[in-house]
Amino acid sequence: MNLPQELIDFLPCRTPDAWVDQALAHPEELLIDHANCEKKAASTALNLMFRYIDKPVLLQKMSRLAREELRHFEQVTALMQKRGVVYRGLSASHYAQRLRQHVRTVEPGRLVDTLIVGAFIEARSCERFACLAPHLDAELGDFYRSLLKSEARHYQDYLGLARQFAEGPIDDRIALFAQLEGQAVMENDTEFRFHSGALDAPAKNAAGTAL
């Protein structure tokens, strides 16, 4: 799948093939956690709207983003229902927390960093949709391809807002979160999630079966 070169350059690394293998091995968890991610993305946009009511440009972009994310949530859950996948609770991956724990606490740094983190989350989501689409059935593959344009725009919106509201250059903050994001993608995780890192392979005995 073709992605904008600027998005590829923005991300510190590509998603490992091992993650794609795990996604294909966990089709229900993939859809459930994808729905969760869309819901969380809408919540993030709404929270920014309530927190920064004095920024008209942010309010407009986040309002549109929240509507799109909720529409995606509706589409994912409709696909789940069609496929007999029951929406249930899943523990969150550590990906977003690994980034957000480094967000500054004083404004405007807090807003700028939050927006940069949002840009990385949206860019990684877009990249993972592109990684997955060729390996999925026609219906789901086409759906994931249909999300690429909006996810790429969301990444651009977040990054553009971060530059707009910063008091100076933000290249150093982008570089910091790029390093953290790359580590999160390669970090060992014990459960598959849409934004999980590399999963620990189960140990095997001499006969080659999992212990």
TrEMBL record:
Pfam families: MiaE. Gene3D superfamilies: 1.20.1260.10. It comes from Halopseudomonas laoshanensis. One of its GO terms (molecular function) is tRNA 2-(methylsulfanyl)-N(6)-isopentenyladenosine(37) hydroxylase activity. InterPro entries: Ferritin-like (IPR012347), Ferritin-like_SF (IPR009078), tRNA-Hydrxlase_MiaE (IPR010386). This is tRNA-(Ms[2]io[6]A)-hydroxylase. Signal peptide: none annotated. GO terms for biological process: tRNA modification. Transmembrane segments: none annotated. CDD domains: MiaE (cd07910).
